[in-house]
Write a structure and sequence with these properties.
binds adenosine-5'-triphosphate; 9-stranded mixed β-sheet; single chain; 17 helices; binds magnesium ion; alpha+beta; 475 residues; two-stranded antiparallel ribbon
Length: 475
């Protein structure tokens, strides 16, 4: 089954069950000061769940463009290294706004996966909220447990804790238990390597969560206590690329027809080969992933820039350019040449790509060009720093200057140094970084970029992105 067929099968299945097919909301959010990018299908329906507005149809289905590179959901570091977390991905979802609840949500999900899409039942596991002994004092979600027990053998039902199986919108508002569906597509040989039965969260690239069914049944009040919601809601999210991996019988999202054409194009442009060497593979995956994030963002009207969402996009693009520069030896702009294959592949489902194609190519090409110039200049400056180094360790504050003032990536500095048998004074670098962070913290209002974390987790503030990026090792 092609990815196009999978997408339409999903939408049509729920359409036949009286769901209204709605368009994806933009991936870049312009009117919510607390959220920069859509990170889940339910974002656009927030007001319905809060009871602030009433939907025209009590059931909806869609595929939502999501980006998880900031705030509570920041998967950037995994991208490329693993084979199933992306920056930009499609989240398939079906919703009930005060309409159907657990029985329908569970049985339809199962029917779709096993009867319509014909996934082998033996590779599926489900999880159910086990309850919590904290102040909430919640018991096992027996409703979900019993519904699953009627469908799957009991040893395929895994009990999960609050972290994995209880969803909250924020420190107040709708919340409730969730049930996840995981697919274990390891080969028999792989399974034999692990003793015992198959495990959910086995930390294996072929054991992945594909679908999350959230049952909003409580409201968390300002005093922290829970009360039952008068109208209960269903919110589900399924990773489209992961579903394609399972259905197309491949081992990685990057081997599906969602990514394959892009990877083939990268191979052709950079004269590289995917699947031969882990370092090259990571670089190719990063590029194949990031071109989507950047292109969809520009199509949404968010160009790379020096602030806010634009800055996040600029960093993503630069990250890809850097991987190409370092591991695929790309010294000329090349990312923009991937836009046509992406558009061919996804332009029917997301016409904005077709409409904005020329702009996307021009913007990416220009960004690449100027960043490559920065890299060139940085290399000259780095040579000077190296020439002035006393001993084998290179001054961390100087490296920070190169990073901070010239935008020269610190991981590239570290890599070049190690190639020359030198090392970086990491302590000096960290100190300079900390001082700079302190300066920007006091200078600017903390920007919250994910309304799911309005509880005020300071780790999530935007300045952390820089710090994170600086700490990322290339491989
Ligand atoms: P994971 O545990 O794999 O990080 P999650 O629990 O963070 O996933 P949810 O917030 O439950 O994910 O989102 C619903 C679904 O979206 C997941 O079941 C998964 O299939 C998919 N998904 C989540 N994050 C990503 C990502 N970064 N790239 C691709 N698909 C994703
Ligand atoms: Mg996650
Ligand atoms: Mg999870
Ligand atoms: Mg989940």
């Amino acid at each position: 089954m092609t990815s196009k067929e999978i997408r339409s099968q999903f939408l049509n299945f729920y359409k036949e069950k009286d769901h209204k097919i709605v368009p994806s909301a933009p991936m870049v959010i312009k009117d919510d000061p607390t959220l920069m990018f859509t990170n889940a299908g339910m974002n656009q329906f927030k007001e319905f769940f809060l009871g602030n507005s009433i939907p025209k149809s009590p059931r909806a289905v869609d595929t939502q463009k999501c980006l998880r590179v900031s705030g509570k959901h920041n998967d950037l570091e995994e991208v490329g290294k693993d084979t199933y977390h992306h920056t930009m991905f499609e989240m398939l979802g079906n919703w009930s706004f005060g309409d159907y609840f657990k029985p329908e949500a569970i049985s339809w999900a199962w029917e779709l996966l096993t009867e319509v899409l014909k996934i082998d039942k033996d590779c599926l596991y489900v999880s159910v909220f086990e309850g919590s002994k904290d102040a909430d004092n919640l018991s096992l979600d027996t409703e979900a447990f019993d519904l699953w027990k009627a469908i799957v053998p009991e040893d395929r039902i895994i009990l999960g804790n609050k972290k994995d199986n209880f969803w909250e919108m924020g420190d107040q508002g709708p919340c409730g238990p969730c049930s996840e569906i995981h697919a274990d597509i390891r080969s028999a040989e792989e399974k034999a390597k692990v003793s015992g039965a198959s495990l959910v969260n086995a930390d294996h690239p072929q054991v992945v969560e594909i679908w999350n069914l959230v049952f909003m049944q409580y409201n968390r009040k300002a005093d922290g206590s829970l009360e039952p919601l008068p109208a209960k809601h269903v919110d589900t999210g399924m990773g489209f690329e992961r579903l394609c991996m399972v259905l197309q019988n491949v081992q990685s999202n990057y081997e599906t027809d969602v990514f394959k054409p892009i990877i083939r194009e990268i191979e052709a442009i950079t004269h590289s080969k995917y699947g031969k060497n882990e370092e090259t593979d990571i670089a190719i995956r990063v590029i194949a992933d990031h071109i989507r994030a950047v292109s969809f963002s520009i199509a949404d009207g968010q160009l790379p820039s020096n602030t806010g969402a634009g800055y996040v996009i600029r960093r993503i693009l630069r990250r890809a350019v850097r991987y190409g520069f370092t591991f695929l030896n790309t010294k000329e702009p090349f990312m923009y040449r991937l836009v046509s294959v992406l558009t061919e592949n996804m332009g029917d489902a997301f016409p904005e790509l077709k409409e904005q194609r020329q702009l996307i190519e021009n913007v990416i090409k220009e960004e690449e060009h100027s960043f490559l110039k920065t890299l060139d200049q940085g290399l000259v400056l780095l040579d000077q720093i190296i020439a002035n180094a006393k001993g084998k360790e290179v001054n961390g504050r100087k490296a920070f200057e190169l990073y901070d003032t010239y935008g020269f990536p610190i991981d590239l500095t570290a890599l070049i140094l190690s190639e020359k048998g030198l090392s970086l004074d990491e302590k000096g670098f960290e100190e300079a970084m900390q001082e700079q962070k302190n300066r920007s913290k006091s200078a600017s209002e903390i920007s919250k970029d994910d309304w799911e974390v309005l509880s005020g987790d300071l780790e999530q503030e935007f300045v952390g992105y820089d710090a994170l990026e600086a700490n990322v090792k290339l491989v």
